[in-house]
Amino acid sequence: MTNFPRRFAIVLFFFISISSQSRSTRSSTAPHQGHEESAVARTLEEEKGHAHEVHCSRERSRAARKIIEQYLIPFVEKEKHHIPKKCPLHPENDLYRLQEQSKAREDINLWRCGYCKKTFYEEKNLDNHLDEWHFDTLDTSPGRCLADSCGALHCDLVMDSPRKTKCNPAAAARNKHACEVGLFVGYMTVTICTTTSLLDLFLRQFCDAHTCKGGRKPFSRGGKVIYLLEYI
């Protein structure tokens, strides 16, 4: 019995030591774990914030698509030409092409998503839905933003946004150069324009109107309806 106090003291000291080590371990690892969790959370937030960023205007791309379909494609088809895929105006070089084709307008104020069948009262709400929930249907390869061609194609003329009343000579010159050299001529003359008819059409239809001197109007050859009437 004389050894009992000594044994009790040894056991007590043993448990105290284990308890102290346990607390020390928790205190040393907790900040590290918290740091890792915070880092993971920040990474997820960053991925969430950047995953759906697309620097291409859907509205201006829609305007460019409308102009191409109405003021260029009918002439291309009539002359039995084709637009090469490397040309920015080729139908497949459109970031939003598949999403726009999936839309269904069922009434004046009723739009339906072709992917999940949800309905919306306004097209802009459907656009937001597509951006948020169907981002994976976009082809984000380089060179597929039709909005980049809007300066050359006169997109402002078919959009509802207010038009500028004062002509900027420097801007007109830049757009004409982009139209003549960068957009159409540089891609198409060597590849498919065995005659000058299509090239001449494009210059007259789009490029010549980039001037502040007046006299030339965009789409001078008319659009799809006018063009078809000429051949009836």
TrEMBL record:
Q: Where is the signal peptide?
A: 1-24
Keyword match Metal-binding? yes
Domain C2H2-type span(s) in chain numbering: 111-134
* Gene Ontology MF annotations: zinc ion binding
Q: Does the keyword Nucleotide-binding apply?
A: no
Q: Which UniProt keywords apply?
A: Metal-binding, Signal, Zinc, Zinc-finger
List the InterPro entries hit by this protein, alphabetically. Znf_C2H2_type
What protein name applies here?
C2H2-type domain-containing protein
Origin species = Linum tenue
